[in-house]
């Protein structure tokens, strides 16, 4: 049995399948962990959802910001973004089944065998691992309940930008969603910045720091594997691995075999 982690797919199914061919992936014996954003700007979002669900227990995925946005669009809460290619999902005969499956995916997945946690954007620097797990479960419970539409209706906001244990209701849920699915930079005091998407080396301000480099970040007992931030182009260090390497933007898709630490890449086909 081998365990593979792969960065954001974003509908680039052909590249994913070529990567799996490289390693002779076998869904009967191997596992594929996906860092979220299964859908959005690549050509095969519908087909990607169908493929990942077909893997059954061999696939472990978590929710990214594009996945949550897809659910919001499905309920008329938001519109399909101009660059997204997700419209075929809503008219597909298995649309309801696929969207229900997506809504029941977690925000955080723990691989105890390899002492790894996986989330789409990372782990709030104000959380230890137990807090992160508890916070993920809180939002997952709401998303999988009859309050899920209310949650999606109210998740689009950048505030609050700092974690407090006494946060309640939608403010608490919104911070958790933003930390797990949208976070990149933080200010030195731990506040989340939701605007800047540049590579860290292009930041002139001393105030903004990648979340995983914050000096007062709480130490974690697990390595963090995440996607979301293509500009990092596969950064490894600070006990994190960033696996989104911009396949949907014409770069390449990256897969990591945790058993021996080997990386595999596939150049974007278009």
Strand content: 15-25%
Question: Strand order across the biggest sheet?
Answer: 3-2-1-12-13
Helices, by number, come to 8
**Principal-axes shape call:** globular
Q: How many β-strands, per DSSP?
A: 13
What structural class should be given to the helix and strand makeup?
Answer: alpha/beta
Catalogue the unreliable spans: none
Question: How many whole angstroms does the radius of gyration measure?
Answer: 17 Å
Please provide the ordered H/E string of secondary-structure elements: EHEHEHHHEEHHHEEEEEEEE
What is the fold's blueprint, element by element?
Layout: E1 3-6, H1 13-22, E2 31-34, H2 45-54, E3 59-61, H3 65-74, H4 87-91, H5 95-103, E4 109-111, E5 116-118, H6 129-143, H7 148-153, H8 169-181, E6 185-187, E7 192-193, E8 208-210, E9 223-226, E10 236-237, E11 240-242, E12 252-257, E13 262-267
Parallel strand pairs: 1-2, 2-3, 5-9, 9-11
Antiparallel strand pairs: 1-12, 4-5, 6-7, 6-8, 10-11, 12-13
Helix pairs in contact: 6-8
